[in-house]
Structures are given as C-alpha cells and as structure tokens.
Amino acid sequence: MSKRELTVTPPSVAITRTRFLRPEKITRAFFLAILIFGALIILVPFVWAVSASLAPRELIFAFPPRWFPQPLQWDNYARALTTLPFGRYALNTLLIIFFVEIGTLLSCSLVAFGFAQMEFPARNFLFVLMLGSMMVPEQATIVPLYQLFRQVGWVNTYLPLIVPSFFGTPLYIFLLRQFFRALPRELNDAARIDGASWFRVYWSIALPLARPGLAVIGVFTFLQAWTNFFYPLIFLHSSDQATLALGLAYYTGQPNQPWELIMPITVLMMLVPIGLFFIVQREFFSGLSPLRFFMQQ
C-alpha cells in the first residue's frame, strides 16, 4: 500500500465532517442576517435625519418620506451655524464636558482603586452602601439638590453640572474597580517595598494599566454630558448659558419651528459621538473585556 493511499480520508469521515460543519454555517448565516436586519432598522432614523437636513422646509415631513430630496439644500448647514447661536451652545457644552471628564475620571478611578487594592475597615460595607445609592432615582433627589444649590448661589451657573462629578459616580466606580482588581498584586507590593505611597502606586502604576477602562468611562461620560437635557433644564435659566441639547429644545418648542435649521444641528450632534467612537474604538473594546470579572463578586 502506497503512502498516498494511507493519507486518503475515508468517505464516512468526510460525510461526518460535512454534517457537523453545515449546521454551524447555517447558524452563523442566520445570526449574521439578524444583525444586518437590526442594523438597517437602527439606521433608518439616522438616514431620515440626514435626508431631512438636506431637504427644503416643505418636504421635511412629507409622507411618504423623500429619502433623496431634490434639490439638496446644502446651505441648510451654513444657515443653521450662522443664524442660530449653536456655536455658543457648543462651546458651553464642551466646557462642561471638559471639567466633567476630569472630575469623573479622577474621582471614580481614585475611589475604585481604594476599594480594589487597599485594605481598610468596613470596606465591603461601604462598597455595598455605594452600590445601594444606585437604586435611588434621580427624580427623587432633584428637589433637595436644587434647594442646596440655590442656597449656596449656584443656580444659573455651571457648577451644579460640574461639581458633582468630582464626588464620583457609583456605576463608574463599580466598573473601574473590576479593572483594578484584575491587576497583579505583586506590582503594588513591589512598589510599596520600594517606598512608594499608595497615591504613587495609583498614579504611576494603576492608572496607566487601566487606560482601556478609563477610555470606556470617558466615552460614557462624554455621551451622558453631550446629550444631558434634564439637569441643564433645571439649573440653567439663561439662554446664553444653554447647552446644545437645551438650546435645541428652545427652538423645537417654538410655534413656528425652523426645522430646516434644526435638522442640520441634530445631524451634527449625532455625528460627534459617532466620530468619537471610531477614534477610541480600539481602546473601548479592549476596555470592555474585563467585564467578565463582574460575576466573580
């Protein structure tokens, strides 16, 4: 018997392999079709918003929708950015986001590092108490919070939107704690033996290694602050201090809404988070991997 004959796969084995591979391919194609169908459904409102931003005013709410309006009104974007004060609203929003990002990342990472790496009395009790605060809805605390900020003179300023971020967010602390728990304890022990303080260990060792987790928290914080409407509506009473979400609501609530100017701003507000996601997507997805440690608690 030749060597070539010994390497020939028996027909029964080939049939068995085909039977096992075929259901797997069918299942993969089925789930791929579901994902494509779901993606198309999600894209429909975005495509309509883009087409409405390029349509004349009388065709924006036409039924059936004009997906490709003719002619395309490209000057809607230029008019929206020059006629309405959305440039000022964008600067106000970015100013708030800048300080909120700093406060959230610093406070949440510092508290999460303490819960994950340091030993102190009642640590588990304080952690459970912090998680319990997530069960309290925001609407239940808005009245006493407004009274507090009104008494200290912070109403109609950006301080009520910025200062709370420096005291941590329970959900983000919980997420970052998982990243710090995944770090090798030997790094902390070696640094402590060399005389480094706990803050030095946190700043020089833990933070650089938790960069993917910080990217995830940074993206979530940006999206929350970028689309925040409830708190600016409560604490900001001047139109000059309005954010993008609040300023957009000002014009949509008027009797004669300029929809040909509102829709371009709406599209731009959607494009900014999408562009941010494509910029940090690698760090974002790598930062989501330690979420498997959640079930270890």
Overview of the molecule:
By secondary structure, the chain is mostly helical. It has two domains: 3-59; 75-296, MetI-like fold (Orthogonal Bundle), CATH 1.10.3720. It contains 14 helices and no strands. Helix 2 runs antiparallel to helix 14, helix 4 (86-117) runs antiparallel to helix 11 and helix 13 (244-252) packs antiparallel against helix 14. The longest helix has 43 residues, at 11-53. Residues 1-6, 13-21 and 292-297 have low confidence and may be disordered.
Topology:
Blueprint: H1 3-6, H2 11-53, H3 75-83, H4 86-117, H5 123-132, H6 138-151, H7 159-162, H8 170-181, H9 185-193, H10 198-209, H11 211-226, H12 230-235, H13 244-252, H14 259-288
Helix pairs in contact: 2-14, 3-14, 4-8, 4-11, 11-14, 13-14
Report low-confidence residues grouped into runs of 5 or more: 1-6, 13-21, 292-297
**Topology order in helix (H) and strand (E) letters:** HHHHHHHHHHHHHH
Derived from helix and strand composition plus strand pairing, the structural class reads: mainly alpha
Count of helical stretches: 14
Terminal-residue CA separation: 61 Å
- The CATH architecture category of the largest domain equals Orthogonal Bundle
Mean pLDDT: 82
**Global outline:** globular
* CATH first level of the largest domain: Mainly Alpha
Number of domains: 2
Kindly report the name of the CATH homologous superfamily of the largest domain.
Answer: MetI-like
What is the total tally of β strands? 0
Radius of gyration: 27 Å
